[in-house]
Write a structure and sequence with these properties.
This protein is an alpha/beta fold and about 525 residues long. It has three domains: about 180 residues, 3-Layer(bba) Sandwich (FAD/NAD(P)-binding domain); about 100 residues, 3-Layer(bba) Sandwich (FAD/NAD(P)-binding domain); about 220 residues, 3-Layer(aba) Sandwich (Glutaredoxin). About 30% of the residues lie in helices and about 25% in strands. The chain has 16 helices and 25 strands. It has an eight-stranded mixed β-sheet. Strands 1, 2, 3, 4, 5, 6 and 17 form a seven-stranded mixed β-sheet that branches. It has a five-stranded parallel β-sheet with strand order 7-14-8-9-10. Strand 5 and strand 6 form a beta hairpin.
Length: about 525
């Protein structure tokens, strides 16, 4: 049967890797009449076929790798197990299922078996430290974040050419391609190719990633790395790895519920017989997991550390005067939904605000669901989530707003906003407060930030102070890491940035005097 005819978006079990361990797992799942698919960026049994002689696999005396691979292939076809030649780049467990991203598509599963083998390509110096901080293995997942920006694409295999082309032609990314394989790459004209340039090291300098080449450093906004396979520890956040191998128990379970591992990826000996046996054990574990449901997960750590909670409790007790209400719009996942279309950051923001509000009886939290409370969201002008509005209880249309998770450096701005609303004490000068009396038309301020920007909170505090000083001013913090479309709309390459009534404030200091001039220009009636 044609794999395309068998393709679905959802399976009971997804097997990552088409070697002996992966096929053993898939056969055992299919034998129990459960839906299964095998995903791999390489042809099935490509490593097995290279072995000139295999003397120790039971039932196949001195078989060649090609003969054993052919027998595996026939067994796979007998059970009509679909194989899709797609490289898996990320595995994301959620509350109800596991989402698997490939270089071409996205799939949903109830359980996953990782049988990826051992990655033969050594990491570049600095690569591991920058994963998730400018280095990515998933163009399909992260490429859209860099539309209009410049990235380096380091590929160890020719298959990387397709992903680089997608980044350039479909996502509008400026791509510099570094092939680390023989042969001439075939890429669109918009992709710049640097042949014979082998990177020595990756490092961060300010907002850029520097790729150190023999010809000199190459400064880019991000680096995409394409290998024959992604190491299991990089595929799924939370998997425990020891000396390059996935840590599993006797049932081949990893530290992530519903995720199992088998074969070379779990450690030596790197033997086909061992891989086949582990594949069966992993499959049986996955089937048991499907029957019994999710095993108990470890208790989630609090969003606020104990020391932080103690300090915040003292600050709120000593400095709050009048009550303050936090209005939060999030989105709860319905059964069967994946974390991408739901709001992946809403749960994090909701937990943080819930713990924060519990620290003082003068601080309350109203949590609303964006879908079921859409009318309230529209009335308050909330067009993206997670959203946190700071105001007084019963206030119509709070004008101090955070879009994104108010964590990291931005939590300090949230705390200061709560205190400012509670005390009514402005951070603006008396001269600025007097001048703000001239504002008589609505003005909308947006501060574009990221959680790791140490200069952003001061600009957020400044904008929110203007909102507190005038009923005509609304000020938003927008985390562009959560809402990259906002950064693209304004062609923003660094933060903080200030947007006034939809127009980016030009180059120059983001200080009180300059912002006052912009607000007066937008909101004061002209004679």
């Amino acid at each position: 049967m044609d794999p395309a005819e068998q393709k679905s978006s959802s399976y009971d079990v997804i097997v990552v890797g088409a070697g002996p361990a992966g096929i053993s797992a898939a056969i055992n799942v299919a034998n129990r009449k459960r839906s299964v698919v095998v995903l791999d960026g390489r042809a099935p049994f490509s490593k097995t076929r290279l072995a000139p002689s295999i003397p120790n696999y039971p039932g196949f005396q001195y078989s060649s790798g090609e003969e054993l691979a052919s027998a595996f292939q026939a067994h796979m076809e007998r059970f009509e197990i679909p194989f899709l030649r797609e490289k898996v780049s990320k595995v994301m467990p959620s509350e109800d299922e596991i989402v698997v991203f490939t270089d071409r598509d996205m799939y949903h599963a109830k359980a996953v078996v990782l049988a990826t083998g051992v990655s033969r390509e050594a990491d570049l110096e600095g690569e591991a430290e920058l994963v998730g901080r400018g280095v990515s293995y998933c163009a399909n997942c992260d490429g859209r974040l860099f539309a209009g920006r410049e990235v380096a694409f380091i590929s160890y295999i020719p298959e990387g050419e397709e992903e680089a082309a997608i980044l350039s032609e479909d996502l509008g990314v400026s791509v510099i391609y570094l092939p680390l394989y023989k042969g001439d790459p075939h890429l669109p004209e918009g992709v710049q190719v640097l042949p014979r340039e082998r990177p020595a090291r990756l490092r961060r300098e300010g907002d850029k990633i520097l790729v150190e080449l023999a010809s000199g450093p190459l400064a880019v906004d991000a680096v995409f790395v394409h290998k024959a396979s992604v190491a299991p520890g990089d595929l799924a956040e939370g998997i425990e790895v020891d000396d390059g191998h996935v840590v599993v128990d006797r049932g081949m379970s990893t530290a992530l519920p519903g995720v199992f591992a088998a074969g070379d990826s779990t450690g030596e000996p790197y033997q086909i017989a061992k891989a086949v046996g582990e594949g069966q054990v992993a499959a049986l574990g996955a089937l048991r997991y499907l029957r019994e449901g999710r095993r108990p997960e470890p208790e989630e750590p609090p969003a606020l550390a104990r020391e932080d909670r103690e300090n915040l409790t003292r600050i709120l007790r000593d400095r709050m005067v009048d009550p303050v209400q936090l209005t939060f719009f999030g989105q709860k996942a319905a059964a069967g939904e994946a974390p991408v279309p739901v709001c992946d950051e809403c749960r994090e923001a909701g937990r943080l605000l819930e713990e924060f509000a519990s620290l003082s009886d003068k601080l309350s939290l109203v949590a609303l669901d964006y879908r079921t409370d859409l009318a309230a969201a529209e009335e308050l002008g909330v067009v993206r989530i997670p959203a946190t509005l700071v105001g007084t209880p019963g206030q119509e249309g709070p004008r101090i707003r955070f879009f994104g998770v108010p964590a990291g450096y931005e939590f300090g701005a949230l705390l200061d906003d709560v205190l400012a609303v509670s005390t009514g004490v402005s951070r603006l000068s008396a001269e600025t407060l007097a001048a703000m009396a001239a504002v008589s038309r609505p003005v909308h301020l947006e501060v574009l930030t990221t959680p790791t920007c140490p200069r952003c909170p001061d600009v957020v505090r400044l904008a929110h102070s203007f909102a507190l000083a005038s009923p005509f001013v609304t000020a938003d913090m927008i985390a562009v890491s959560d809402f990259p479309e906002v950064a693209r709309a304004h062609n923003v390459l660094s933060v903080p940035q200030m947007v006034v009534d939809g127009a980016l404030l030009g180059a120059g200091p983001l200080d009180e005097g300059r912002l006052l001039a912009a607000v007066l220009s937008a909101g004061a009636l002209r004679p």
